[in-house]
Write a structure and sequence with these properties.
This protein has 292 residues and is mostly helical. The protein has one domain. A two-stranded antiparallel ribbon has the order 1-2. Helix 1 runs antiparallel to helix 10, helix 5 crosses helix 6 and helix 9 packs across helix 10. The N and C termini lie far apart (46 Å).
Length: 292
């Protein structure tokens, strides 16, 4: 009975953690999975979004509502970020992957330093009524601080999937990733479409930041912990496969939770990297193929 109790709680925790991991990776599924831009700064942007939510929460605003309010400013920030990237590389005929990685890695460090200067290195958290309470279902205890963010993910994934598959702009985003020259011939401006897509990805980072800070306190360097996880989710799902991102996140979350419960918590961060390496070696296209 004790083992069954432990397994059920591990599976429930993994399911919720995996859902949150998928939300963290959703913006990267657009920039890296669809646009093929290696935005390693995405986790740092998520943390910046989390800090914006924390500051807004000081005025009594719920973290989820605060994230929604911050989506437009972060969308504009994403547009500016992409414009800088495009002027640095794409307008000059493109840069190699190493140069792009260097740019985004540098941006990640700049974001971290800016957060340290503005807020220090102390842990920051949000104040909300449901944090600290749990829902009990038999032997399983489900903390609301995990449950609430985990429930946000399917809604965001579904809305994003609808946008990308049922709207003209969404279809244009997928078309640009598939054949930019053909889209240009058809009269659509590929740069404008990619700029819009990058803005959406950056706006989603705020939602992910709110989910992350609800689960626990953060500091300016918290994004480093999740770099491996988010890339593992995107690659495991299949580059740009939006619904697959949720499934891949849950797989990694459950795997981590089982390792923490039956082996050692110190091994958990290595699970995502192990899955990432195994996916690249055995099925580079991911579980659900390369989405476009």
């Amino acid at each position: 009975m004790v083992v069954l109790d432990l397994v059920l709680n591990a599976l429930a925790t993994g399911l919720m953690l995996g859902s949150i991991y998928a939300l963290l990776a959703l913006g990267l599924a657009i920039t890296f999975g669809i646009l093929h831009i290696p935005n390693v700064a995405h986790p740092a942007i998520v943390i910046a979004g989390a800090y914006a939510v924390v500051m807004t929460n000081r005025y009594g605003v719920d973290p989820v509502l605060a994230a929604v309010l911050w989506m437009i400013p972060f969308y504009m920030l994403g547009i500016l970020f992409y414009e800088f990237y495009a002027r640095s590389f794409e307008s000059r005929g493109g840069g190699n992957t190493l140069q792009s990685l260097t740019l985004f890695f540098g941006a990640s460090l700049v974001i971290e330093v800016a957060l340290v200067v503005a807020y220090g290195t102390d842990l920051r958290s949000v104040s909300v009524g449901y944090v600290g309470s749990s829902l009990r279902l038999g032997f399983v205890a489900i903390p609301y601080r995990f449950l609430i963010p985990a429930l946000i993910t399917p809604v965001v994934v579904f809305l994003l999937w609808l946008y990308l598959t049922r709207t003209n702009v969404g279809l244009a985003i997928r078309a640009v990733a598939h054949d930019e020259r053909a889209v240009s011939v058809s009269g659509v401006n590929p740069a404008a479409i990619k700029r819009h897509a990058f803005g959406i990805a950056t706006a989603l980072a705020v939602i992910a930041g709110a989910a992350l800070v609800i689960t626990g306190p953060i500091d300016p360097f918290a994004g480093r912990i999740h770099i491996g996880r988010v890339f593992a989710v995107v690659v495991l799902a299949g580059m740009g496969t939006i619904p697959g991102t949720l499934a891949a996140g849950i797989i990694i979350g459950i795997a981590e939770s089982l390792v923490m419960s039956f082996m050692s918590p110190s091994w958990a961060p290595g699970v995502a990297f192990a899955i990432l390496l195994a996916t690249l070696a055995l099925k580079p296209t991911g579980l659900f193929g390369a989405g476009r």
